[in-house]
Amino acid sequence: MDKQIIVLPGDGIGREIMGSAKLVLQSVASEYGHRFVFHEHLIGGAAIDAYGTPLPEETLDACMQADAVLLGAVGGPKWDQQPADKRPEAGLLGIRKAMGLFANLRPIKGFTSLLGASPLKQEVVSGSDMLIIRELTGGIYFGRPSERTDAGNAVVDTLFYERQEIERIVDKAFQSARLRNKHLTSVDKANVLESSRMWREIVKEKQKEYPDVTVDHLLVDAAAMKLITQPDQFDVIVTENMFGDILSDEASVLTGSLGMLPSASLRTDGVGMYEPVHGSAPDIAGKGIANPLGMILSAAMMLRYSFGLEQEAKEIEDAVDTVLEQSFRTADLAKEGDRVVTTNEMTERVIDNMTTKSVAN
Ligand code: NAD
Ligand code: IPM
Ligand code: MN
């Protein structure tokens, strides 16, 4: 298979972990005889420094032609005082919107070997395996107006959804539930927000088309509590943009580290952007200690969802499992007795386990 992959390392640890993903993909390519060509472009703070804008036209053009995009992370204190449209985050929101990537899939699995890494009790974390489906191109993130008014003494952000935006993400969630344990939890704030009341109505309408899927509705505050008290009660969660952002960072606690979580940002034709859930982690950037596994697992999701390479994706995921079973941990996960490794060492361990396995087969 011959694929052109657009690579957007971004800022902070984004650059460090992107190197890991490329090495892992190169290893897959040589093992299976694929050809992956990486085209690197700037986004976020790096793009502001070079071009004065977080999403340069040439980056956008390259992504619009792409089969798949890999993104590290954007942002950092250096650019925090910039006006809204000149912040690194505006570049990320802009690329998601321009590519129409409305469905953000965030799988969260409590790895058996990481049960002790979570601050939650093992019996709570045990058995948790869920998929958060976050609406990604609408809601309050993209509301107009979003501005200061009254000479700077008042402020407005707008939460806006069109029916079809909700319908398509709810369809995606039902379809995903069918491929898993057929249990969908829709999370909203229908006791307060009109947008949530319409969201809930649409889920109920759509349910008629998917009678084999069991549906629950949870208010977001209760969902936040249940996520870390009874996480094994969830299969697929579907929710609007900002609720999904917050709940997925919370759910990362089940794995022991935000650095573990991958994601796929998709539309209906298989084109996607693959990005870890975490940010640019300015507190550890440049130290070579970031956990690359969320990024590496995002690359595996790319192989699965954009290229249909299930076996290759599974091989990466199995190698990650094995490395964790061998007690290798980056600093974010390490407990006494673990074998603490750097970003690069962790990447090597994953690659070694992939190739060792293929030789053994
Ligand atoms: P963050 O996710 O960058 O970091 C939160 C905490 O988790 C930090 O202590 C960090 O060290 C740790 N962490 C995150 N990823 C890690 C990894 N791979 N390995 C080890 N530890 C890891 O969130 P923040 O500090 O609130 O935000 C920093 C910047 O990142 C901000 O500018 C924010 O806007 C941006 N951000 C970008 C994205 C993205 O590009 N997708 C996502 C979230 C935040
Ligand atoms: C994420 C991030 C982004 C978001 C920010 C950086 C715009 O937190 O990908 O989860 O809120 O979507
Ligand atoms: Mn987030």
Automatic annotation (TrEMBL):
Record-level Gene Ontology MF annotations: 3-isopropylmalate dehydrogenase activity
Residue numbers binding substrate: R96, R106, R134, D221
Subunit composition and interactions: Homodimer.
Keywords: Amino-acid biosynthesis, Branched-chain amino acid biosynthesis, Cytoplasm, Leucine biosynthesis, Magnesium, Manganese, Metal-binding, NAD, Oxidoreductase
Domain Isopropylmalate dehydrogenase-like: 4-350
UniProt protein name: 3-isopropylmalate dehydrogenase
Residues reported to bind Mg(2+): D221, D245, D249
Free-text function comment from the UniProt entry: Catalyzes the oxidation of 3-carboxy-2-hydroxy-4-methylpentanoate (3-isopropylmalate) to 3-carboxy-4-methyl-2-oxopentanoate. The product decarboxylates to 4-methyl-2 oxopentanoate.
Cofactor note: Binds 1 Mg(2+) or Mn(2+) ion per subunit.
PROSITE patterns in the record: IDH_IMDH
Keyword Metal-binding: yes
Broad class of the protein's primary localization: cytoplasm
Gene3D superfamilies in UniProt: Isopropylmalate Dehydrogenase (3.40.718.10)
Known EC number: 1.1.1.85
Recorded metabolic or biological pathway in which this protein acts: Amino-acid biosynthesis; L-leucine biosynthesis; L-leucine from 3-methyl-2-oxobutanoate: step 3/4
Cofactor: Mg(2+); Mn(2+)
UniProt key word Metal-binding: yes
Catalyzed chemical reaction(s): (2R,3S)-3-isopropylmalate + NAD(+) = 4-methyl-2-oxopentanoate + CO2 + NADH
SUPFAM superfamilies the record matches: Isocitrate/Isopropylmalate dehydrogenase-like
HAMAP family according to UniProt: LeuB_type1
